[in-house]
Amino acid sequence: VQLQASEEGLVQPGGSLRLSCAASGSIFRVHDMRWYRQAPGKQRDLVARISSRGSANYADSVKGRFTISRDNAKKTVYLQMNSLKPEDTAVYYCNADLTYYSGTSLYTENFWGQGTLVTVSS
């Protein structure tokens, strides 16, 4: 069971980029999915969260510019980032609560993707 995020991206200020992250393995159910980011020398912060029913929440710094969405059939979460600023430069991590099979048992755990570098620069 793992989360696999899209590759890193370089974009100019004011540009757009879409990140994706897919869950794979013996998954029974995908619960809340989230995107975090960590800029150099700073702590990892929550950017956006989406529930299994599609209810979304955003950090104040990205409201109106970023949109989180999900495709439950594909077990994938997306982060559409518009009007990007240099201060959005960071490693972006997807995160999800997954219920998965192991043998005949079900377990629910929190998983992290591998991190995707997003650089906003001219």
Task: Describe the structure in your own words.
The protein is mostly beta strands. 0% of the residues lie in helices and 61% in strands. The chain has no helices and 11 strands. The strands form 2 sheets. Strands 2, 4, 5, 6, 9, 10 and 11 form a 7-stranded mixed sheet that branches. Strand 9 and strand 10 form a beta hairpin. The mean pLDDT is 96.
**How many runs of DSSP E, i.e. beta strands?**
11
- The number of helical elements comes to 0
Q: In sequence order, what are the helices and strands, one letter per element?
A: EEEEEEEEEEE
Distance between the termini: 38 Å
Q: Would you tell me the overall average pLDDT?
A: 96
Overall geometric form: elongated
Please report which band the strand proportion falls in: under 5%, 5-15%, 15-25%, 25-35%, 35-45% or over 45%.
over 45%
Whole-number radius of gyration? Answer: 15 Å
Strand pairing plus helix content: what structural class?
mainly beta
Give the % helix: under 10%
- Major β-sheet, in short? 7 strands, mixed
User: Any low-confidence stretches, pLDDT <50, length ≥5?
Assistant: none
Question: Which helices and strands occur, and which strands form pairs?
Answer:
Blueprint: E1 2-5, E2 9-11, E3 17-24, E4 27-38, E5 44-50, E6 56-58, E7 66-71, E8 76-81, E9 90-102, E10 105-112, E11 116-120
Parallel strand pairs: 2-11
Antiparallel strand pairs: 1-3, 3-8, 4-5, 4-9, 5-6, 7-8, 9-10, 9-11
